[in-house]
């Protein structure tokens, strides 16, 4: 906690200055026209008045307790974050509520409580795919008024993280920490990673079998949410999209067809595992850590695992890079979490103060240093203390990946959209239907779902 004393001193000082300024505006002091009080005496008197006003303001601040909910935090960073906030805002007490570690279970519990108008939770963390759904359902407060009043610079955040919380012309969530897909590769086999998907295919075929490897490339191709993320990366890389900004379905396009065909080509490659359609993140990192593959797509969490000699046979021989590019460039699927305010909160102003602190520079630095969570504010990656936390945070390629990250479809019916994509993409990758048919099926089914 000591490392945050200097950071918070500035915050507290600014708060005190603001309080004193406010008191000066509200209080009027009668000063006689004729006085022989010298400047020093007057300054002392003003200082005494300021102290009295400050004390009065502090006494006037109402004690508030808010409840913050998030999934289980094994790192302990949440406790440090709350302690730092309460030190800066002593009149606000934050009660921390553990939610289920399973994201789906947390989602369902939030829906149950918020749909009943429950005000117990004030602030909560949300998966990047939830904001539009919760906004449409009326579960959360729009944050635009708070953002404007406090002059929050949303351009300081990575674009994709802001976009994930934006729906129907308003901002409903603040970015807290982020995640994005990376290409991992064996540095003892290849000198430079591939820059395009075609190059990856060629190199995967060429190098599979070297240094004890069996496979060329690993990805998440099982029928689950991970398949949707991988598909978004391909679709975006080839210039396609699933929905436009006006919620029109645009998935049936030549670009999407080309993306699915490239996915199918990789799945069918001789260097890919015969059971690639069963691969999820754990299967990917297990095989890669055992030295079975030259290349693998996974989230940043795998980087530290590759360097752990207790579980990695490839420690010291792994690099990471941007995912390969298609016709429209490179794209990484966006993951991570955001923070929102319950519409039924009885203390929205205090809730916002906590959200602002937690998702601002001070809060995100704490989360990075104490929990290893990747900041959504670009400038924090230039902070030496943040860079020391993890190799990724000091790597320009990783920062570029975060800057290029693309969100999944932003829609209040995302669960239905995801299900449609999982089913049709799985059928295409299994060879049951063509890429053209998959894109056409997704188009018609999504249009039907959105019209209901």
UniProtKB/TrEMBL annotation:
GO terms for cellular component: ATP-binding cassette (ABC) transporter complex, substrate-binding subunit-containing. SUPFAM superfamilies: Periplasmic binding protein-like II (SSF53850). Residues 25-60 are annotated as: Disordered. One of its GO terms (biological process) is maltose transport. Residues 1-21 form the signal peptide. InterPro entries: SBP. Keywords: Signal, Transport. One of its GO terms (molecular function) is maltose binding. PANTHER family: MALTOSE-BINDING PERIPLASMIC PROTEIN, MALTOSE_MALTODEXTRIN-BINDING PERIPLASMIC PROTEIN. Belongs to the bacterial solute-binding protein 1 family. This is ABC transporter substrate-binding protein. It comes from Alteribacter keqinensis.
């Amino acid at each position: 906690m000591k490392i945050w004393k200097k950071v918070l001193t500035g915050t507290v000082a600014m708060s005190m200055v603001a309080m004193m300024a406010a008191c000066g505006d509200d209080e009027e002091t009668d000063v006689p026209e004729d006085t022989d009080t010298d400047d020093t005496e007057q300054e002392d008197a003003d200082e005494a008045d300021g102290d009295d006003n400050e004390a009065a303001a502090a006494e006037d601040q109402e004690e508030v307790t808010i409840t913050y909910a998030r999934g289980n935090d094994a790192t302990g960073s949440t406790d440090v974050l709350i302690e730092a906030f309460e030190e800066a805002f002593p009149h606000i007490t934050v009660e921390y509520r553990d939610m289920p570690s399973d994201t789906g279970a947390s989602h369902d519990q939030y829906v149950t409580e918020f749909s009943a108008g429950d005000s117990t939770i004030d602030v909560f963390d949300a998966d990047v795919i939830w904001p539009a759904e919760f906004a449409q359902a009326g579960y959360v407060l729009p944050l635009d008024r708070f953002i404007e009043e406090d002059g929050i610079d949303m351009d300081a955040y990575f674009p994709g993280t802001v976009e994930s919380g934006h729906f129907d012309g308003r901002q409903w969530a603040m970015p807290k920490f982020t995640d994005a897909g990376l290409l991992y590769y064996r540095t003892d086999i290849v000198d430079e990673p591939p820059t395009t998907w075609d190059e990856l295919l060629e190199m995967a075929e060429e190098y599979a079998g070297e240094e004890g490897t069996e496979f060329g490339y690993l990805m998440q191709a099982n029928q689950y949410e991970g398949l949707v993320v991988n598909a978004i990366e391909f679709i975006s890389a080839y210039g396609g999209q699933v929905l436009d900004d006006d919620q029109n379905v645009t998935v049936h396009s030549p670009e999407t067809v080309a993306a699915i065909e490239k996915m199918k080509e990789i799945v069918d490659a001789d260097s890919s595992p015969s059971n690639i359609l069963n691969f999820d993140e754990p299967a990917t990192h297990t095989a890669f850590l055992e030295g079975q593959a030259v290349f693998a797509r996974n989230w940043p969490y795998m980087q530290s695992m590759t360097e752990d000699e207790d579980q990695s046979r490839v420690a010291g021989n792994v690099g990471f890079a941007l995912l390969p590019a298609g016709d429209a460039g490179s794209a990484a699927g966006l993951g991570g979490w955001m923070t929102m305010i319950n519409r039924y909160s009885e203390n929205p102003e205090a809730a916002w103060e906590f959200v602002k602190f937690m998702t601002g520079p001070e809060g995100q630095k704490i989360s990075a240093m104490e929990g290893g969570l990747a900041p959504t504010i670009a400038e924090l990656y230039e902070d030496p203390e943040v860079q020391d936390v993890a190799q990724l945070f000091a790597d320009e390629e990783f920062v570029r990946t975060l800057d290029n990250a693309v969100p999944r479809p932003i829609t209040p019916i995302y669960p239905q959209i995801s299900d449609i994509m999982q089913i049709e993409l799985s059928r295409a990758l299994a060879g049951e239907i063509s890429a053209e048919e998959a894109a056409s099926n997704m188009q018609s089914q999504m249009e039907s779902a959105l019209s209901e």
